[in-house]
User: Fold these one by one.
Assistant:
Number 1:
Amino acid sequence: MRWQCSGKSGSGKRLRIRQLPFSANLPTALPALFLLNFFAKNVASIAHDSLYCETDKTGRQSCAEPSHYVLKLARRDDDLAKQYADEHGMAVKGEPFLDSHYFIYPQTGAELRRRKRSVDQLVDRIGVDDLIIDRPKRRVKRDYLFDQSFVGPRPEERIRRQTTFFERREVPKLPFHDPLYQDQWYLVGRAVGSFDMNVREAWLMGYAGRNVSISILDDGIQRDHPDLVGNYDPLSSTDINDHDSDPTPQNNGDNKHGTRCAGEVAALAGNNVCGVGVAFLSKIGGVRMLDGPVSDSVEAASLNLNQQHIDIYSASWGPEDDGKTFDGPGNLAQEAFYRGIKAGRGGRGNIFVWASGNGGSRQDSCSADGYTTSIYTLSISSATYDNHRPWYLEECPSTIATTYSSANINQPAIVTVDVPNGCTKMHTGTSASAPLAAGIIALALEANPSLTWRDTQHIVLRTANPNPLLNNAGWSINGVGRRISNKFGYGLMDAGALVKLARVWKNVPEQHMCTYEYSLDAPRPRPIQGRFALNFTLEVSGCQQGTPVLYLEHVQVITTIRFGKRGDLKLTLFSPMGTRSVLLPPRPQDFNQNGFHKWPFLTVQMWGEDPRGVWTLLVESISNNPNIGGIFSDWALLLYGTEEPAQPSDQRYSPYAPSAYRRPGIGQALTSQNETTVEEASTVRFGSLQSVGDCHPECVGCSEPRSQTACFSCRHFTLTLRNRAGFKCVEHCEEGFYADGDKCKRCATDCETCSQAELCDKCHDAKLLIDVKHYGHLDHGRCVATCPEGLVADYRLTIQAKCVLRRNSCSAGYFESAQSVCLECDKSCATCHGPGPLQCDECAQGFANHTMGYCRQCCSPDQLTQKDLHCEDCSKSYPEFRTKSHLSMLSLLANFFTIIGLVLLGTVLFYLCRQLICCCFGNGRNGNRSDLEYTPLTTIGDDLDGRKKDQKQNMGFALEDDESESDNDDAESLMEGEKRSPEAEKQQREVPTEEAES
């Protein structure tokens, strides 16, 4: 299959991708091809800032000449590649990568003009798909902070121990006796507050990374270091810079970075050398690729190395953290990522761990780093010894979790190995954080080797612990109740919890991608100038007609903006469930005048949310210069996720309506920001426009007088127009809409009124409303012509006929089947209306439904200690979880008092009839009874009228109060009241007999 696309590199050369080569074992499903095609069209055209280019005094820019070229053949043919290279005065070096890509180098001393002519001729040869001019990029290691290694290694730290390759070793008893083990404060609970990353718990469970291979993509590793040699893996190693198999770095004092990172992961335990690696029984290798010119092909070859053997790739480098660079992977590196997650590890996908960046002191953001904003990487941040943000930390919503690292020279840093044959206690930066994360993930892969790349991201964010870091500002709670931070992601990695969850984890469902492109009204593109705030809304249905996404994972915003000072721009994304992600904060050092083109901003902070509803992108400028301007061109929303919950025990959203959990305040936040702009400036700018006078009363600033559709923001409610390209401001939501915060959203077509999009309160025409608020029924709030199986029509409430559960005539602990047979409830149910734990009305003794929505067994004390995820904590009270099962006792009491009331009513009617007869035939035995007392009868009648009135009101409230959980119980109470028990009827028949005898 051939795909045609083109992009433009930072050097201005057109890049041709005539064919995307796939290995034979790659999936050929259409969604996979569509995804790669989408990236080729939208992401591959990103303009990079990191090419080695310099500008002279005259303004002319010159870029470094390429050190090599990449020859791409239609299919792999090593002999043909060498033949073509020889015929054109070049040489092939190293192994091919991405199946049919070859490094070719010009002969030494070849003239530049002759070299270019050879390149032009070679690209036209038969079997050649492309010849890529691969210019070097700026790439930096992320540990530049400070370095205070030991002056000389201790004698015991230089001991070499000959170890059988990959020998199986027993886990030593803790504590280890390695000389620097007690200095590894982040492993032994010596961070402030006695915190650590709970690695010892995983070790004591027997996990140390056996049979897991990790490769450090860096400046090489010292493979014969005494603390690494026993775990060294040649199959996870190579030298891309010199095109051989030996990853040993140059011994020039600068190339120790990769060796240090390797020691964090896999330093041997119990050998009396240095400290201990997190996964001290794992296989460790290294790729020497930073010790020379780094280009797209160098990165791709590193990422593509032996993807069937290597499990985890750890990278502690990236674009310059200077606060003014936007850069990411090129076309070849993107293809290597894609091949890794699609075909690596036998189709389970390689794990790519990335350091988030060290540009915090320059107010840089990792959102400008295309490696950390890739959905295929786990972006790892850092925390200090005292559980604070380090001064170098970069903020972005793509960060998934955090590990410990260094802060300043007065605080302990990371302990690891050093070159040559030594140790260091001063490894620093986010460079130190990524390898620690890779080691922890290796423990999880040993516990469950079937984990996929997406499974790994799920369990990392679910088990991350925010508690040690909550003393830092910036934490918030997302739409599914998880704490999130642009500094620390979901919190500090917890190895013990990660391994426990990995052991029971089931592979997640197939990944879907749903894309929405915003249609911009005229003028297109929209002019922007000075200080402004624009918000753009998209109504999202979750692609229910294509590849549905009901449970979010990654969310990307791909946008093109050109502005006079790129660093003044700020982008914020709001999800329908109320989560706010700052995609791009202002970067004062970034004076770039070009902006960004099709840049993929990523957030993982909406993970697990229901995407259906209104998404809002807020684009702001903090510029104080009214003369700075530009254009806003476009934006698209990419939603990645699944149609089914990630795990069977996860909360399930209704397939017919968005999640019932919506947090107000998104629109209020937008309105507040716009109102601040109104108060601070005499005119309100909306792009290149300014507010006119005589705005509509519902407007806060406007572009046209007395128009509800030309408002900058709204005072009360915002109603999105049908074309989704604008909105109007209203005081109250119109009929057919419902209020959600300060937004008016459209009801489903069957709803006359509603409280959510497809949660009707009243139906059109004569349709019935399904009224079953229960976990096992997902159709609650739908309007139907006839009741579905298991429900019966209830026409007694004349305001709106309903479909309700069939009344259970069986005794407690049983339910009535379709054949009118009483069957026993599930053991977890005290009462139920059907089989299984999902259909309990009330949980049995020893069971509860506090968290999952159905009855689960209470946890034992041991399970509570181990934080078991498969039981309920019954030691706490949960008043907020009030469901029908909690109201069953109230229903029984209501039935009892209803029967008593009916008996009293019958008695009163008898007395009234008797007195009426006495009045009409008063000349009988009683004579004239002028002193007959009617007062008690009047009082009883008034009480009855009041009781009837209360019953009618309650019947009405059962329709109107959407928050009440006892609607069906009220209806059942009335039904029980109408059908009297035999004892009540017998009592009523006996009353007049006794009176007659008296």
Number 2:
Amino acid sequence: MNGRFTETTTMGVKWFCLVLLLGLSTLTSIRVTGQTDNLGFISIDCGLPENSSYVDSITTIPYTSDKQFIDTGENHNISAEYITPTLSKRYLNVRSFPTGARNCYALNSLLAGAKYLVRATFKYANYDGLNKLPIFDLHIGVNFWQTINVSDADTAYLAEVITVAPANYLQVCLINTGLGTPFISGLDMRPLKPTLYPAANATQSIVLYTRLNAGPTDNTVIRYPNDSHDRVWLPWSNEPYWAEISTASLVQNVNNDHFEAPSAVMQTAVVPVNGSKIDFSWTPDSSGDNKKPNPGYLAVMHFSEIQTLPPGAVREFDITINDKPWYGPSPRVPLLRRRLQHQPRIRQSPVQRLHRRHRQLHPPPLLNALEIFTALPVPLLGTDAGDGTVSGEEKLDGRSVCSKAYAWDGLNCSYTLSSPPTITSINLSSSGLTGVITTSFAYLKSLQSLDLSYNNLTGSIPDVLSQLPSLTLLDLRGNQLNRSIPPGLSKRSQDGTLTLRVDQCANGNSCAPSRPKKISPIVVVVPIVVVVLIVAVILIICLRKKKPGSETNPSVRPQNERYSSNIENKQDSPLQLENRQFTYKELELITSNFSRVLGKGGFGTVYKGILENGTPVAVKMRSHSASQGVKEFLAEAQHLTRVHHKNLVSMIGYCRDGDQLALVYEFMSEGTLEKHLKGKANARPLNWRQRVQIAYESAQGLQYLHKSCNPPLIHRDVKTNNILLNSNLEAKLADFGLSKAFNSSVNTHVSTAVAGTPGYLDPEYYTTLQLSEKSDVYSFGIVLLEIVTGQPAILTTTESIHIVQWVRQRLARGNIESVADPRMRGEYDINSVWKAADLALKCTEQSSIQRPTMTDVVMQLNECLELEDAGERNHTKRNSRGDYFYSETSDSQISTFEMEYMPQLPVGPGPVAR
């Protein structure tokens, strides 16, 4: 990075494992006492001695020590050789963090849901005498902000983000990535009006790339008080190609201005010399980490007429990006704001060009100022502020541990849309813990379960644990604790509000169980007699109902039992189901002699039927030539009787009449998802909101099979043809004929012969014959790609190509629109589509260990829904290209801006004029 101020915007995250150990934590603590000044500003000089403060001589902004915002790190003064008379005071010292992977400042007393500009500055200046230039990451809360790559000791680097506070605090965290000690010179927070910078919202922040004042009369940096929001505007000119023009007149902002550039910036501009165009571009920084995703650039160009034009003359010009016209009305001054965003992930240098429309009739174009940002999705939430401190000698940053990126085994959190996540369960059983139980667990007001069993904890049991209102389970077995149970815990255990598990006392002290009471023989005998009588009555009733010589009622055998393919030999073990048993004649009647075909599959043909009460049903008849036999039929029947979820089809009954096998289940009037995606006859076209909802509901069904069934079930045949839709387009997973049960508490997989549908089959399962839940995740990833693209699992236009390969090739060029189903006509939130496509590719990783769980998939699809809904709530109009368009007009001015997706680039030093 070069230049006096350099903005690095490489997007990505280096995640670290968090381990919650009592008395030990690599994470650092935060304080919560920071206050704003009378402007609402928080202005911190990092490394300034405690209780020190001063007023900046240029901006008149009061700065204070950072000691009240953080209690880790070391204060240092910069090397004397870098101190000059013009150096700002806030660069004379730094705070560095040689220990701890993550060190966080807390900016408090904020307004939840309000918009803020947060700026961090860094000047190394060899403060440590080592002359080792560091590289480290910066996070806003638990989300990656940008990488700070210090390439010159004398350069001051600036990082700025505009974000919406999710709570009444914000955290700025410096992350040690192993490439040098993180440090910081200054930290500023400025409140913004909610109408400013609409691209910054609850689901997306915007990170500053550069902010330039075109054509200044000198090289002065403009900020507060000239800019009431204290933005930093850097001087920008390009002699001899551009001429600088200016005015002394005040330039006022238009009504409903979304950017409010200050008059001092709008009073200067540049125009081309001996030409009719203004060119500028920016170049990728080769030092950026290309592994970190960059969703593209967001450019804001500011225009204001500051020259007196001849009568009848109007300054009107065209804008092109990489020699392609920018769509939208041509800028016409006196005042205009345009906001441009272009296709993400296109790795080429953007070239902006402002052309004079008609040389004879119009003056040349002008440009007053330029801002460039990158979009930063906000996919992660920290935990509730009350979960802030939970370990021993050092305090754990509890606001981070519940983030979906930092979540670790043994920690469960509650996620809601209306509030930050809270920690609900901690399992540290057999974790090698030593020392005493910290009283800091009392901060976790939502904690329901705490398992500290089988460690080497000593000391007494803290009674403060009894004050946790939600705690229902406390397991302290297998430790060396003082055997005395505190009164509060003992009382809760006795009244049944807490399950307390402790070791029995070795010495018969206070925790010894009370002496058992003598039980009267009558108390024992009476219940036994009653039970015997009840059992006898039930047996008599069952024997009377059974016809003489009849076989036992049908029963479904365990899935892993061997089955013969000869149906006649199976009459001694028919189905025992609570569902209705149909005869073949009844099926002929309700299906009008099997005249209404709904579809065909490996089991056979599915027909539509109408029950006596008018209820429509689907009847799946097994064909004698079907690829799936009796075993699969019995397996599906067995599974359907024990799975009950709103996103799984419900079985109404079955038929086993002679050699006729059939299943009768609820009718799904809209048919299969495959039919809708392929646009088959009478299929209702699906918009993006409906597609994501269907994916979300299908994922919930799979999650239920994996996590809530006992034993868990692997579906083994997840595909669009097995996702059925009802009249409300609610999705339900169907066809459990190939499903496989396994004991997840004992095995991570089960070895079995390959079964499934080509195109959806997990390649790892295919090669190793080891089936796991991640095999379903892979198949679901294919389904999700079909939902995004509208393409089948295997494309056969010219030559066969798998959809994963097809999508990866196109997304490598950064063009999401070439992947998104054209039948959606671009009517979608592009961030939502990107997130879904990215999730699908994660699900289809070759290695199962790299794939998410269905629980993760459900959470991320819910975020896709939130992104789409947020776009709808903002009343965003979209054209067929997926661009956002806003238009506002009044009698006195034109104020329009349009968002397009600018090409993604790694970090660069700033625009280059030509």
Number 3:
Amino acid sequence: MMRSIIRFSMKNAVALCLMMLLIIGGGLYSLKEINIEKYPNVDIPYVTVVIPYPGASPKQVMKEIGEPVERELMNIEGVKNVYTDGVANVSYLTMEFDLSVSMDDAEQLVRSAVDKVNLPETAEDPEIIFQGPEADPTIFSLGIYSKENTEEVQKFVSDKIIPQLEVIEGVSKVEVGGVEEKTVSIRLLPEKLKEKGLTLDDVKGAITANNMTIPTGDVELSKEILPVRVSKELQSLSDVKNITLFTQGAPTAQGVPTLEDIKLSDIAEVTYGIENESNFTRINGEPGVRVGIVAEGGANAVAIVEKVKEEIDRVKLPKGYEVETLRDQSIEIKDSVYAMLREALLGAVMAVVVTFLFLRNMRSTIIAIISIPLSIFASFTVINMLGYTLNIMTLAGIAVAVGRVVDDSIVVIENVFRRVSASKERNEKLVEQATREVASAITSSTITTVAVFLPMAFVPGIIGKFFAPLAWTIVISLIFSLIVAVTIVPLMSRMFLLKISPKEHKENLMQKSYRSSLKWVLRNRVFTLVMAVVLLAGSIGFIAPKLGTTFLPQEKVTNFDVNISMEKGTSPEETSAVATKVEDILLGKKEVKLVSTSVRGQDEHASITFDLKENVEDTDAFVEDLRAEFKGINEAEEISVTGVGSFAGGAQSQYVLVVNGSDFEDIKKASEEIVSKIKRIKGMADVSSSLEGDEPEIEIDLNETKLAENGLMPAMVGKSLRDLINGDVVTTMSMEDEKTDVKLSLKMDEISNLDKLGEQEINNVMGMPVKLKDVGELKRVNNRTVITHLNQNEYVMVFGQITDSKAGEVSKKVDKVIADIDLPDTVNTYKEGASAAMEEGFKNMAIAIGVSILLVYMVMVIAFGEGKAPFVILFAIPFSIIGALIGLYIVKEPIGMPAMIGLLMLNGIVVTNAIVLLDKVKKNEKKGMPKHESLVEAGVVRIRPILMTAIATVGALVPMAISSHAGIVSSSLAVVVIGGLSTSTLLTLFIVPVLYSLFNPVKKLKKTVIENQTKAV
């Protein structure tokens, strides 16, 4: 079959040339159409349901919403875990699905399950959220501010900018911070209400009665039928203040009751403006507006950001307005992708240079030059058809493959070049024979390399899906490289190489040196093998323990989040003051380029985003210094600093521990002890837990008898009280040409104690006022601020940031500390987050390596037709670890996932070179050549293609090894392959012949081996 393919290729030059043009055209078209993103678009199997329940306590939220909904969600097929959080006013339920479940199907299943639950009347509609691979899904954000008029900025952004951005294709959501809707607020004065004998319902009725339109029917006037309507609209703040209410006045002298008319302004404060001024945004210390763009899943982030920038440029900003780009993920994406693309191109150039240096023939080099883009462009076409994007994983696959795709072509080119140079014949049969001679070897070696990477494409879990594009890219590139090597290369060789002049073949210095060295090694097999084993044991025993482990390497991050948590009950003013202190520290640093602050005063939180200048080299040290400074702000309960946009597992790895069980008090005690212990471990920072403690609150214990006596039901009391405290939108009106809510509430800062709250009145079913204290007992209690369930059992989550590059070592220390704690029998712990992913990733990668070795052996058994030679090749694989570990030690890189992939790649390279060597040995033996002589002659003939492919691969990976933009793919992958290949090539040339001779013994090796060179083919 191979002969037919080669002959067809050589006899159909026009068809093949057209095919080459088609491949290049398809590749260029695919590059134009393919989406660009930083990371592969992986469906993260988490779905969150958010159900608002205004006015409800955490306990009430959990009992009335959390528990019923989680019971239904637990019944969904494919759900692994259900996390339920009950906090004041809202319930969060997060489901973790099996990766086999489609997220579209998951959404439907979740909606159906939630619809089965009878939610409380006052609960709002559930919202379903899909969590993405990034902690921050924002692809672009900007800040707009003016030193003169903040309100005008807010209106300008709302009217002129947001509507333009929302309609851009691919935009999922436009998030806005710093824009608060204005409302007409009516705050009732408790003492005045009591004095006039009015309730909230009375006022509500008066407001709605003064802002209505009622159609009353039709009348006939002068034979014309006209509709009649009664209309009264509130058109100004003055109209609201002048709303008239009526109450019973003092009776006349005759005892006749009278009506007293009261203006709304007499019993309430009526204002127009931003209701909640404790929530605000500042840009570089100035009040402003933050606009964030969230893209749809799979959308082209780079294209979306470009369109957003175009829209912003079209908007004419008023004088005095400033715009700052807070985050631009398109720059990160383009930098990462283009850097990896540049490294792939440099790698291709290096591979071509190596080919020229060895063959010293421009025609041979041109063939190699043509073979690389054909394989790569064909790969781009298939990658696009498979739905993959152009990201650092697919491009890393290309960068890795560049050094390998040229290997098959090099072997064919070198063999044709050698045969043509040594022969006076000049016909295409010579090219065909030379190609066929190595066809079986390159086919076997390519299939074995494919077998090496194929298991990685099927590694389970999110990490497996994340690395699958890299594996498939390499596999596809290698398959096309084989096709090019047996079709295009023979045709090009016929066109270019048959024209070179023959010359007498002489062994060069390299071949002569290798011949004498190999003879010596074969005479001293035991010594050679012992030395290799000692080197292997030494590298594993002495170097490996010093390297440490991590999951994914650190990416350089310049964008950071500072999260400030205050104690429960802290006033909005205090939260703002602490945020200002943190802001001042950051603005005072010359390394900081930009600071954006967002304060949520009512829930005791503030977040600050800051951007470092590009010239800051050691960002880790800068962040550590910041953490130390922030510790001096004693008013804050916790201030944490995390990198934005870094994939889990870098230097800012997250350690997450779930503490769960059947007894909450035991869980609480255990989690507090765990937090206390791991805070002391070097390399851990921002250690905290989801345990938020208790919060004082007022509880009204309703009395059923009193409720019945006063004509009230519990729901009526709850709703009326919620409207009093939180406010109720009773109507809308037009203010500043905008539809504006009119919100009615009690002026709560005048309620100074429980007695005053108990004096507040609500209307019963008859419309009569009833005091709160007459239907229940008001008391001050301490209740939990958050209640959390994991699969219907309570749990606490412990968090920490691993700041050491050797994340695995720190994680082990934490594990040991936790194991030494005497936890109650009712408490269980297990890891999540990056540390758990690291353990799972290493385990799965080890399995993938094992499976790949088994597949490689099977392929070689089929190729060689026996099991002994493949067994010899497998024995050589472990020795490649020597150079890999030495390389990591020199560059001070820990062992991580990229290094593991590098080791996987080494398996394929070692096997490939060994196959090329032993294939020639087998051919020599079939000709009757003695075993040792066949080993020496095969080595001398094959040393050049083996060194060429090895050095070409090393050269192709050098740009990645020295790059600072390799990201999570990391230079460690390249370092492992370069170091491992340096030693494995020597092992292929010496250890493989030694092992082969030991497994295929002869009586005695003669001291003098035949010196006359045997014709190779």
